[in-house]
Amino acid sequence: MDDGMERTAIDGRHLRSAAMRPIMETPRWWWPAVLALGAVVVAGVVAWAVQLGDGLGVAGYNDNAFWAVYEADLVAFIGVSYGGAVVSAILRLTNAQWRAPLTRIAEATALVTLPIGMLFIIPHLGSPQKIWELIWPPYWNLSSPILWDFFAVSTYLLATIVFFYLPLIPDLATCRAYLDDPNNARTGDSLGLGSIAGLRARMRNARLRTARTLYRIGAGRWTATNTQRRLLHGSIGLVAIMVIPMAVSVHSVLSFAFASSSRAGYLETILPVYFVVAALYSGVALVVLTVAAARKLYHLEPYIHRRHFVRLGFVLVAFGAAYLYLTFTEYLIDGYSGAQGNAAWVRQIIVGRYWVPFWIYFVAAGLIPLLIVAVKRLRTMNGVVVASGLVVVAMWIKRLVIVVPPASEPLVRSPLTSSGFLSGDWGTYHFTWVPIAITLAATAAIPLLLLVVFRFVPILPVAEIEEMSEQHGSTNGNGALDALEVTTPNARLDERQPVGAGDEIGRS
Amino acid sequence: MNDEPQPPNSGKDGPPAATETQSEPQETSGPARIERRSFLGRAVVGGVGVTALGALAERLFATPAPAGASPTKAGSSAPTASSSGQADHQWAMVIDLRYCNGCKLCTAACQAAHYLRPEQTWIDVFTMRTAENKTYSMPRPCMMCEDPPCVPVCPVSANVRTSDGLTLVDQSRCIGTRICMNACPYEARYFNWSDSRSVPRQPFPQEPEWPVPQQKGTVGKCIFCAAMLPSGQVPECVADCPMGVLYLGDIVRDVAVNGLGNTVTLSTFLKENDAVRFKESYGTSPRVWYILGHGQDLESDTSAS
């Protein structure tokens, strides 16, 4: 590591300061952003408290719409965590060099979204005060798909934490060294009590003290010996392999809770695959959004370029096309089956009372992302970010289309008929402010937690980037990082390129 | 069980005479006779051939119900109601649709007795449509299935099936996941989306046999007025039906009685009137029989979704 540092002395220092900047400095926007996001989260908690007092009825639920928004949220938020983990795992396993500046952001996104998704079980439950029964083995009923969910998601959370922590160990050691360096960790002068500057300085000192403690504990005895590096490398590879089937199983099992039913639209063998691909699709989209935001806010332009977005865009549309194909397959086969049951359910979705949300999905997450990446003029950084934003929102809506119609259509009442052209009407489910506030709170919690995480954790995987440059083993200091496309000349080239003139396919 | 020559309710324990009357719907729904759980159990056991896995399958897929009332465990050869030695009663219901005029007094009596909110129709009266586009009324209580889909899906075992063949909800344990509402093909389960109505002092404690008052955030359903049955009272809906449509039956004693005091021999009554069960093809083996009289076909009219 020392060796590498010397060879890429200038860029290494730049890399370190870029990675440490979010930790050392408080940007002007940081506190307003945290307070605003925190306010949204608090509003969601208040909404949940109202629901706790009045019952789930205030969330628009009723006996003919017993599952709706919270269940879609659960699926969507656990789903987006999948993207971060699997993108990082797949890119690690395929040894895609360009991944290096993105892995930390992707893994952090997975880390924060998964607990948020898991928390949706609380508003979902009618009696959350008895949630301990899920943890208490004597009460377990092992034949219940919900319990399978619980085990699967808990295991996956553990794996996500490990997968985030392992590559972090060398960086924590780097941070420890950085903070121990008196040149870097200069503590602010304590001005008098009551002065804002003094308060700021005290808070900064307290934060850095906490950070230093975290780094000491987290980095352990990491000194980057060859044995340690070999072990860590092996462990990361193993966890990366394990994360993929684990994530597949989590989303499959999540779908079992719906599919363990005789309802048209839930009783679908395609559902597990559907859930897995949907999770990957929306997850990659969220990674794109997080990477774009981090690039802007933390000035990572020298490290993250248009080509990163374009490549993520290719990954995105690969999953998008797969999802479109699955949707087509499901609706075609079910719709073909006959006049009642499954066919009636498909009819309700495509031309019946759920046509608006379905076609929003089809246009915003089905067609537009494909077009944006397919058309060279649109295949820009902004293009991919716009596509990802559309995907994240439209895939949430698609989850509603999956969850709500089967749960809210009557089973005993008159069979589904073609008469229900009630556009925009969610069957017997009606949105209220409570689930909207809670969903917004969960959405706001993602950037909020990421801001907090990157307050203590370097946003760029310093060791990984340096290792990549070592692998390229160039003799001059810049050549190594050239290979990673993190030097400024390349970045300038990228920025200078006219829109759509890039040849990123050839270069990737 | 699929090679069992007799239909599920034949034999000495089920309503014996229902055999012939059941045969027609049975034939039309052939594959459904392979009960899901026993099918899964056998698939695992047969495919892998490991006893340990068989035991695991038994644990995973068996209904947590008393042995006397659980006829569908993998390996049991006779999917009949019960062996009469193990329980004094096996409760059932017969609904004679020929006389139902849709007055919904059954619903009202039920809601009054259990202090339910108006939308909590534990016994609901649906207006159904025949193929000739004529309407008829169909009361729907809980079907008290022999193989209830709602029971195994509960993560905390809040659903219980008693030795008398009643499926009940332990509301002190229910956490409100509502996955049982997803599993029930009859929409017979009702969630308490808000606080219960105010309830005066009850003759029974709040328990699965008498879940009054209903607990907010838990699932409730028709209980066949389980707490009243031991003292010889018929359920409120049966007692209050002015047309004598609803009969409470006991498979063990082979008897059924309606609110007008008519007492019939259960098996003969079912046989002579060609009684059918709702959504037979779902493999739930309901303990509620319908007597049709207006050319209805419960299966094709109502299992649409």
Q: How does this model look, in words?
A:
- The complex is a heterodimer of chains A (508) and B (305).
- Chain A is mostly helical and 508 residues long.
- Chain A has one domain (26-457): Formate dehydrogenase/DMSO reductase fold (Up-down Bundle).
- Chain A has 21 helices and no strands.
- Chain A has helices at residues 2-7, 9-24, 30-54, 69-93, 103-119, 121-124, 132-135, 145-165, 168-180, 196-219, 226-259, 271-297, 306-336, 342-350, 355-374, 381-408, 433-456, 462-472, 477-483, 488-496, 504-507.
- In chain A, helix 13 (306-336) packs across helix 14.
- Chain A is globular and about 75 Å long.
- The model of chain A is unreliable at 1-10, 414-425, 474-483 and 485-508 (pLDDT under 50).
- Chain B is built from eight helices and eleven strands.
- Chain B starts with 17 loop residues before the first helix and ends with a helix.
- Chain B has a single domain, classed as Alpha-Beta Plaits (2-Layer Sandwich), CATH 3.30.70.20.
- Chain B is an alpha+beta fold and 305 residues long.
- Chain B has helices spanning 18-28, 36-48, 51-61, 105-114, 179-183, 236-240, 266-272, 298-302; strands at residues 91-96, 124-129, 135-140, 159-161, 167-169, 189-191, 219-221, 246-250, 255-258, 263-265, 288-291.
- In chain B, strand 9 and strand 10 form a beta hairpin.
- Chain B is globular and about 45 Å long.
- The model of chain B is unreliable at 1-34, 43-47, 63-84 and 300-305 (pLDDT under 50).
Give the topology, please:
The complex is a heterodimer of chains A (508) and B (305).
Chain A: H1 2-7, H2 9-24, H3 30-54, H4 69-93, H5 103-119, H6 121-124, H7 132-135, H8 145-165, H9 168-180, H10 196-219, H11 226-259, H12 271-297, H13 306-336, H14 342-350, H15 355-374, H16 381-408, H17 433-456, H18 462-472, H19 477-483, H20 488-496, H21 504-507
Chain B: H1 18-28, H2 36-48, H3 51-61, E1 91-96, H4 105-114, E2 124-129, E3 135-140, E4 159-161, E5 167-169, H5 179-183, E6 189-191, E7 219-221, H6 236-240, E8 246-250, E9 255-258, E10 263-265, H7 266-272, E11 288-291, H8 298-302
Helix pairs in contact in B: 1-7, 2-3
